[in-house]
Amino acid sequence: MVTLTTVRTVDLRSDTVTKPTESMRSAMANAEVDDDVLGNDPTALRLEKEVAEMAGKEAAMFVPSGTMGNLISVLVHCDERGSEVILGDDSHIHIYENGGVSSLGGVHPRTVKNEEDGTMEIGSIEAAVRSPKGDLHYPVTKLICLENTQANCGGRCLPVEYIDKVGELAKKHGLMLHIDGARIFNASIALGVPVKRIVQAADSVSICLSKGIGAPVGSVIVGSKKFITKARWLRKTLGGGMRQIGVLCAAALVALHENVAKLEDDHKKAKILAEGLNRIERLRVNVTAVETNIIYVDIPEDPKFGAEDACKSLEDVGVLVIPQATFRIRIVLHHQISDVDVEYVLSCFEKMF
Fold first, then answer.
1. DSSP code of residue 208
2. Which of 132, 202, 204, 248 could be bridged to 73 by S-S, CB 3.0 to 4.6 A?
3. Rounded to a whole number, what is the distance in angstroms from the first to the last CA of the chain?
């Protein structure tokens, strides 16, 4: 392999790696705070009000992480142990959240295949529904979960029309619909549709603040007032009740106000990088699938040099990425990646492959 010299560090492991901006740090230092467990932190209340309005829902609640947000949402809807949630086989909740819905909530996951575009086939979802009037050998379905954008499918956006159809299906069978909206702002920008319209059919949504828009910590879950009341009890049970969280919420408010608009630029850079990587003869990228800020790069299937080896070699020259599979690398753009960074990453891949 060609030996390269480190010139700069470009961290493309995730959009969670961003550092707080100066305006975020200033807002955190000057945040008005109180005890949020007692419901009195004014900055938290302001953040929750703004996110609820953006999502078109009655109420909202800050949580330390997206994993906790999804777990609480599933447990509110599946309030009987042994009930069932239908979700994608390649979804974040199913793969990357430690099986919490099962281990902590006693909820049974019933997976449906995620198609390449991130959707689950409507007929397959309906076929997976198990009614309380059905065979007593089976758990009873109570919830359907979608993910938008769908990360493992390359940050693909679920169209509004599709979500509406899933919502109609849920109502038909008396089920609830939760959306893991970790990157819902990316979907909104890419689709050109307001968040509240995208999630209109959902009963609850988990919205990450530390991914696309670059806040240092946290997520917000939204839903009806009744849903959020139950969610607050569960947050306390799971150890997520914190005190002066205004210092965190202040940074999140800055992210909402300053960084949502920057996502369009992240998407453009991702497309430019994807196109450049795909022009390298030994690499393959499905450029059409790059709708937001995530890129998957397929490398040659050389048993002596897989994705982990490639990631280590790239790290030696300051490019940080992660292996997604034996011969696949994941790249995630964010607002702290410049045009020069993109050019540097391309040059490193070109010299390596």
1. E
2. 204
3. 9
Q: What DSSP element (H or E) covers 187?
A: helix 184-191
Q: How far is residue 193's CA from residue 117's CA, in Å, rounded to a whole number?
A: 18
Dist CA 267 CA 211 (whole Å):
14
Residue type, 62: F
Tokens read off for 157: 């956006």
* Residue-by-residue pLDDT tens, the chain, 353 positions: 445 555 689 999 999 999 999 999 999 999 999 999 999 999 999 999 999 999 999 999 999 999 999 999 999 999 999 999 999 999 999 999 999 999 999 999 999 999 999 999 999 999 999 988 878 889 999 999 999 999 999 999 999 999 999 999 999 999 999 999 999 999 999 999 999 999 999 999 999 999 999 999 999 999 999 999 999 999 999 999 999 999 999 999 999 999 999 999 999 999 999 999 999 999 999 999 999 999 999 999 999 999 999 999 999 999 999 999 999 999 999 999 999 999 999 999 999 99
Q: What are phi and psi of 177, to 5 degrees?
A: -125, 120
Decide: 321 and 314 in contact? Cβ < 8 Å.
yes
d(CA 176, CA 230): 15
Q: For residue 153, give the DSSP letter.
A: G
Distance CA 54, CA 193 (A): 12
Residue with tokens 């009037």: 133
d(CA 259, CA 238): 30
Picking from 193, 163, 151, the residue whose alpha carbon sits closest to that of residue 296 is 151
Question: Cα(276)–Cα(203) distance, rounded to whole angstroms?
Answer: 40
Question: Mutual orientation of helices 22-29 and 246-258 as an angle, nearest 10°?
Answer: 150
